Amino acid sequence: MTPRHISLAVFIAAVWGFNFVVIQVGLDSFPPLLFAALRFMAAAFPAVLVVRRPDLPWRWFALIGLPLGVGQFGLLFVAMHLGMPAGLSSLVLQTQALFTVLFAGVLLGERLHPMQASGMIVAFGGVALIGADLEQSSPPAAFALCVAGAAMWGLANIGMRRMNQSHDPKPDAFAFMVWMSLVPPLPLLALSLVFEGPRAGLEALSGLSLMGLGALAYIAYMSTLVGFGLWGRLMRRYDAGVVAMYSLLVPPFGLASAALLLDERFSAPRLLAAVLILGGVAVGGLRARRPPTPARERLTNVTGVFGGPDEGHRTHH
Questions:
Q1: pTM score of the predicted model
Q2: Phi then psi for 291, rounded to 5 degrees?
Q3: For residue 15, which of 312, 306, 317 has the smallest C-alpha distance?
Q4: What is the reported pLDDT for 302?
């Protein structure tokens, strides 16, 4: 990658890392499920009016949009609402790459290679260390929901992989993200009505502050549309495995921004856990650097988002 494109990849990682601080700010203005619904509504409109819909059956939008939007983001926002710290959330969500490998083995019959297995053991060891170091400010339920959110992201990755295997040429990833954003709002709004109640939503919308509106705009436009659009440009120019490694910078940016802006403090065990998780994910992804063969196909990751990387990890037969 050229220095200019390396700088662009680092910039995107910073945007996605800072996203977790913005989510925490937004949760001060919105109930979590309503906030997640509004995020996808804002990402879809008005973009769907100018972005052409990919030539795909609607089932693919649902098969990916439900686990990604309702599962990953719904669970993440609830977890952070219950007390999961922003910086720690950015780190734990990185385990989506490992869940993707697990689901690929169970659902697609892909063989787990020793390098992948080693990385998973190391990274999940880091997750266990975080669980053992939880404080009262980080309830176990919030931690469990965050891990579940990472698992749902992994499930969405498998749906995206099957979709790409079934269609040639592959659909434009940015256009797919825009149109997929039409799927989560209704289920999330229904869940918000059931668990948060209409009164909480009406109070949030009637008392909307500039901070809340700014947070919504950031996660919908800056993190999702701008970040994903730039990431897609890099993916079209360079090998997916090379670009995807820059997604490992998202948790450091998330941890640093949370420490600086939210005064989150990290104990020595949590810092060690961060090293284990990022190291394990990096080791598990080393096979992505090998030259591709007909049996090796790109695994496209949907947003991340972290509002995060939407494309980039590979698994192999």
A1: 0.85
A2: -60, 140
A3: 306
A4: 44
